[in-house]
């Protein structure tokens, strides 16, 4: 693996660690385990793009959660820039939650 690819992969892992520190205020599970993060892209300039959803389009944190995600990812030293894109395609369902999240919420 080339150094650039390794650095990009390493940064992707750091981004995921940061995402796991952000919680949906209504559900005591982080947004990554909830399945709200659809994809994390890191390019060779260390720009990060996060494709995520919300539990519902009228989610009370629709305005603040994407900003929190962007700010926390931008705070990583290696990150040049970060952008969050919200999508509702596909819509979020409980099936997207990790087993860990389902266990935490007593669904397993």
From TrEMBL:
Residue ranges occupied by any MIP18 family-like domain in the UniProt entry: 13-86
Segment forming the signal sequence: none
Pfam families named in the record: FeS_assembly_P
InterPro entries according to UniProt: Fe-S_Maturation_MIP18 (IPR052339), FSCA_dom_sf (IPR034904), MIP18-like (IPR002744)
Protein name (record): SUF system Fe-S cluster assembly protein
Taxonomic source organism: Patiriisocius marinistellae
Upper lineage: Bacteria, Pseudomonadati, Bacteroidota, Flavobacteriia, Flavobacteriales
């Amino acid at each position: 693996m080339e150094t650039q690819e390794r650095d990009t992969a390493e940064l992707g892992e750091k981004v995921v660690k940061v995402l796991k520190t952000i919680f949906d205020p209504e559900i005591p599970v982080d947004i990554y385990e909830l399945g709200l993060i659809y994809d994390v892209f890191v390019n060779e300039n260390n720009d990060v793009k996060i494709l995520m959803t919300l539990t519902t389009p009228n989610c009370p944190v629709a305005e603040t959660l994407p900003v929190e995600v962007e700010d926390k990812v931008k705070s990583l030293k290696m990150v040049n820039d970060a952008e969050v894109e919200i999508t509702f395609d596909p819509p979020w369902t409980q099936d997207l939650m990790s087993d860990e999240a389902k266990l935490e919420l007593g669904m397993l």
